[in-house]
Write a structure and sequence with these properties.
Length: 248
C-alpha cells in the first residue's frame, strides 16, 4: 500500500513538473508577432533600448517584416539617428514599394534633416498611393507654408479637413495661415473651431491671445494666454509682462 501511494505521488509530481515546463515560454520561444508586440509596448513606454532589441529579433526571424523596419526607423528617429532611420524606411520600401506610411515617415525624417525638397517628394509619393492620407496633406501644407506658397498650403490644409472634418490640427493650421496673411477674423474662426473639437488643444488659445491683444481686447487676450499656459504651452514671459497692466 505504501509503495503504491509513493508511486502515485511521484507520478503526480512528474506530471506537474512537465506541465510547468510546457506552460513556461522563454523569450527564445516567442513568435515574430510576440516579439513585435513587446517592441511596440516598450517604445510606447519610452524604453527605446528594449524596443530596438525586440525589433531586431523580429527582423532576425523575418527579415521582410516591413512594419518592423518602419517602427525600428521611428525608434532611430526618436534617438536622433536620422541616417539609420532613413535606411530602415528604404529597406521597408524595397520590400513593399506601395507602403505609403514608409514614404510618409521618410518625409518626416528628411524634414527633420532640413531636406525640405526631399520631404515634399516623399509626401507626394505617399499621397499617390493613399489619396486619403490626412497627415501627409498636413505635412505637405506645412512645407508649402514655410516656403511662402500660401495657396498651395491652403489647398493642402483644406484637403486634410475635407477628408477629416473633426481634425482639430487642420483647423489650427488654417487659422495660422489666415493669421499670417492678416485675415484675423478668419483666423479667429478657425482657431475657435479647433478648440471646439479639442478643448484641450493649447496652441489655438495661444494664437488667439496674441490676436486679441493686437486688437486691444485685453480681457480675452489674458483669458486665452492663461488657458494656453494651463494646457501646457510655455507662454512668452515678455508677452505675460505686456498683459500685466490689464489684469484686474
Amino acid at each position: 500500500m505504501y509503495s503504491g501511494m509513493r508511486c502515485f505521488f511521484v507520478f503526480v509530481l512528474l506530471f506537474l513538473i512537465a506541465s510547468c515546463g510546457a506552460s513556461t515560454k522563454t523569450k527564445k520561444d516567442l513568435s515574430v508577432e510576440e516579439h513585435f508586440q513587446l517592441a511596440y509596448k516598450a517604445a510606447e513606454r519610452g524604453n527605446l533600448d528594449e524596443a530596438f532589441s525586440e525589433y531586431q529579433k523580429v527582423l532576425k526571424l523575418d527579415p521582410n517584416h516591413t512594419r518592423a523596419h518602419l517602427n525600428l526607423g521611428i525608434v532611430y528617429g526618436r534617438q536622433g539617428k536620422w541616417d539609420q532611420e532613413v535606411a530602415q524606411y528604404k529597406k521597408a520600401l524595397r520590400i513593399d514599394p506601395q507602403f505609403a506610411e514608409a514614404y510618409f515617415q521618410l518625409g518626416v525624417a528628411y524634414g527633420e534633416m532640413g531636406k525640405q525638397k526631399e520631404a515634399l517628394a516623399q509626401y507626394e509619393k505617399a499621397l499617390q498611393i493613399n489619396p486619403n492620407y490626412v497627415e501627409a496633406y498636413t505635412n505637405l501644407g506645412n512645407i508649402y507654408f514655410r516656403q511662402g506658397k500660401m495657396e498651395d498650403a491652403l489647398s493642402a490644409y483644406q484637403k486634410a479637413i475635407d477628408l477629416k472634418p473633426d481634425y482639430a490640427r487642420g483647423y489650427f493650421n488654417l487659422g495660422s495661415l489666415h493669421r499670417q496673411q492678416g485675415r484675423l477674423d478668419e483666423a479667429i474662426a478657425f482657431f475657435k473651431k479647433a478648440i471646439e473639437i479639442d478643448p484641450n488643444y493649447a496652441l489655438p488659445h495661444y494664437h488667439l491671445a496674441f490676436i486679441y491683444f493686437e486688437r486691444g481686447e485685453f480681457k480675452l487676450a489674458i483669458e486665452h494666454a492663461d488657458l494656453a499656459g494651463k494646457l501646457g504651452v510655455v507662454v512668452d514671459p515678455k508677452f505675460l509682462e505686456r498683459l500685466k497692466p490689464y489684469r484686474s
